Amino acid sequence: MSVMGYVPGVYDMFHVGHLNILRRAREGCDELVVGAVTDEVVQRTKGKLPVVPLAERMEILSSMAIVDRVVADDCTSDKLPMWERLRFDVLFKGDDWKDTPKGDQLEASMAAVGARVVYFPYTRGTSSTLLRQLITAHG
């Protein structure tokens, strides 16, 4: 039986942390679907637009050999609507969600439909937020 994995994320200013999670996710499934969170959802949840627009983020992700498909993810932390569209078997997330209320809710909603949540270590020291701060400070 083929295992479909799903990795949602903003993937703004693509960096090694993004690459690490995609590589790890690729190892845990037969088909890797990446969900690029829409600009509107990022604005609503983080209070700012991504530096790189959705279409460009999706193009970057689509160009990667380890990625089978890229979709626009218009959901907030509730990934049940994305599961209903894709029917993935496992959702991969950075461990910054582990043992948090939103992580617990994600795990419960995925378990209810038979999907697993697998956490990977968050790449410390590299993030789009830090890159944005550096750009702003030196801009």
Which features does this protein show?
139 residues; Rossmann fold; five-stranded parallel β-sheet; 6 helices; 42% helix
Task: Explain what this protein looks like in three dimensions.
- By secondary structure, the chain is an alpha/beta fold.
- It has one domain (4-138): 3-Layer(aba) Sandwich (Rossmann fold), CATH 3.40.50.620.
- Helix content is 42%, strand content 20%.
- It has 6 helices and 5 strands, in the order βαβααβαβαβα.
- It has helices spanning 16-27, 39-46, 54-62, 80-86, 101-112, 128-138; strands spanning 4-9, 31-37, 69-73, 90-94, 116-120.
- The chain has a 5-stranded parallel β-sheet.
- The longest helix is centred in the N-terminal third of the chain and has 12 residues, at 16-27.
- The protein is globular, with a radius of gyration of 15 Å.
CATH class assignment: Alpha Beta
CATH topology: Rossmann fold
Distance between the termini: 51 Å
Tally of strands: 5
Any idea what the CATH architecture is? 3-Layer(aba) Sandwich
Spell out the helices and strands N to C. EHEHHEHEHEH
Please report which band the strand proportion falls in: under 5%, 5-15%, 15-25%, 25-35%, 35-45% or over 45%. 15-25%
Rg computed from alpha carbons, rounded to a whole number of angstroms: 15 Å
Uncertain residue ranges: none
| Overall residue-averaged pLDDT value | 90
- Secondary structure class reads alpha/beta
Lateral arrangement of strands in the main beta sheet: 3-2-1-4-5
Q: What is the percent of helical residues?
A: 40-55%
Global geometry: globular
User: How many separate helices?
Assistant: 6
**Total tally of structural domains:** 1
Largest sheet: 5 strands, parallel
